[in-house]
Amino acid sequence: MQDDDNISEFKADNQNIIKNKALSFGEAMIPVIILMAMLAYNIFFADGAWLGDYSNQIILLLGGVTAAVVGLFNKVSFGRMLTEIWENLKSVFIPVMILFLVGALAGTWLVSGVIPAMVYYGLQVLSPSIFLPASVIISAVISIATGSSWTTSATVGIALVGIGSALGINPGMIAGAVISGAYFGDKMSPLSDTTNLAPAMAGTDLFTHIKYMAFTTVPTIIITLIVFTIISMNIDTTGNTDISNLLESIKRSFNITPWLFLVPAAVIVLILLKTKPLIALGAGIILAAIFAFIFQPDILSGLSETKFKAIINAVFTDTAIETDNVKLNDLFTAGGMKGMLWTIYLILCAMVFGGVMDAIGALSRITQALLSIATTVFGLFASTVISCLGLNAIASDQYLAIVIPGKMFKKAYEDKGLAPENLSRTLEDSGTVTSVLVPWNTCGAYQSEVLNVDVSQYFFFAIFNWLSPFMTLLFAAFNIKIRQLRGKLA
């Protein structure tokens, strides 16, 4: 990178944080204000189609162009910007590959009968009166075991949305319950990457971090479960009287057998054995394809002139299986890898914007401005929360929302006499879990695509996710479990 007296950088876990002394706070905010204004116009006045089907992607690129102009006026080289964009794009290579494989997984699990089998048996076990809290618990258990909210959504999450939709439950409610449980498990699992990253940035150890995080996380998930229990007890569904018809329709269309559960079981076992996600998902696709030939030959024959071509189509393109029930026709569709392209384009464009913002020093400048107004202990916690929330929206990446505030605020917590686990807990309470609430963040884009539920539909029902930052601020405001450097609890 080009040397410049005004610009310095350091690396943490392959994430660059660049400081630019020449850039003012007002200049740093120009791209943010323009980006938010364009996104707001697109969402509230143009129904998401201001610039066509890829409005959000184009807006993110225009935001990146604005940031580049600001950077050029502050003598940041174009080469530096391209370097940071490339670093950002490299950082999402694995997530993009996972998205492609999840698309293929959805297609092969549909034609093999795995998803229909999950829906079939799930309809018989999960009633509307317990469905939402049960979804939270199931998702939490799987996520704790795997350490991945993404894997949880791509496996049991898809099934739960299908089952709940067949019962007539609002898909936004189901997705909110799945995401709440998945992110609770992801946050508390020692296998999770963010759960390891946060204490590393703050300067504490993993298990101290998890134990201390439980103080705010457990009350939050309890409140979440109570709310979903109340909703489930009062839910008005249209699916109860139609369950027998749905079951018959599924059985007429697919060969339903418990043997099909070997496919998701194999994927979960591979993940528990710490197999790389790409390998685990790839194995799930291959196994599902084999099961499709064994258990669903009629389905494959009806989809294409050859069974092999039907599998290829399920992996790469759209697949729709028609039944004699309209609800199931909507449910039993998959887009394959092709269906993931909109989300992948969104992630790539978000990385371009975040890369330019990082290159010109805007991310660092905005965080430093928040740090400068943190004169009290509560102000310090509040500034950390705002910084994490802002970076999830601006940088579009939950890792940057942990790394940048973690590095920037670490010394401030020490100066206030606060133990590092205060910072690591706040990073997770406000950085990790809120990433899924931002439509153009990698997590928000992924979850909405995989669960086929827009962020705006599940936002309110992702109770655990938006409640977590409030809980950490509540503890800070009332000085509850705020550990001092001496090791005492204030």
Describe the structure.
The strands form 2 sheets. The protein has a two-stranded antiparallel ribbon. A two-stranded antiparallel sheet has the order 3-4. The radius of gyration is 23 Å and the shape is globular. Strand 1 and strand 2 form a beta hairpin. It contains 24 helices and 4 strands. The longest helix has 28 residues, at 206-233. It has helices at 25-44, 55-73, 78-91, 93-111, 114-125, 131-146, 149-166, 171-188, 193-202, 206-233, 243-253, 262-272, 277-295, 297-303, 307-316, 326-331, 341-359, 362-372, 377-394, 398-415, 420-432, 442-451, 455-458, 463-477; strands at 7-12, 15-20, 319-320, 333-334. The protein has 490 residues and is mainly α. Mean pLDDT is 85; it is low at 1-14.
Question: Nutshell version of this structure?
Answer:
With 490 residues, the chain is mainly alpha-helical.
The residue ranges in which pLDDT falls below 50 over 5 or more consecutive positions are: 1-14
The end-to-end span amounts to 45 Å
Class by alpha and beta content? mainly alpha
Number of DSSP strands?
Answer: 4
Helical coverage, percent range: over 70%
How would you summarize the topology of this molecule?
Blueprint lengths: L6 E6 L2 E6 L4 H20 L10 H19 L4 H14 L1 H19 L2 H12 L5 H16 L2 H18 L4 H18 L4 H10 L3 H28 L9 H11 L8 H11 L4 H19 L1 H7 L3 H10 L2 E2 L5 H6 L1 E2 L6 H19 L2 H11 L4 H18 L3 H18 L4 H13 L9 H10 L3 H4 L4 H15 L13
Antiparallel strand pairs: 1-2, 3-4
What distinguishing features does this structure have?
single chain; 490 residues; mainly alpha; two-stranded antiparallel ribbon; 24 helices; 4 strands; disordered N terminus
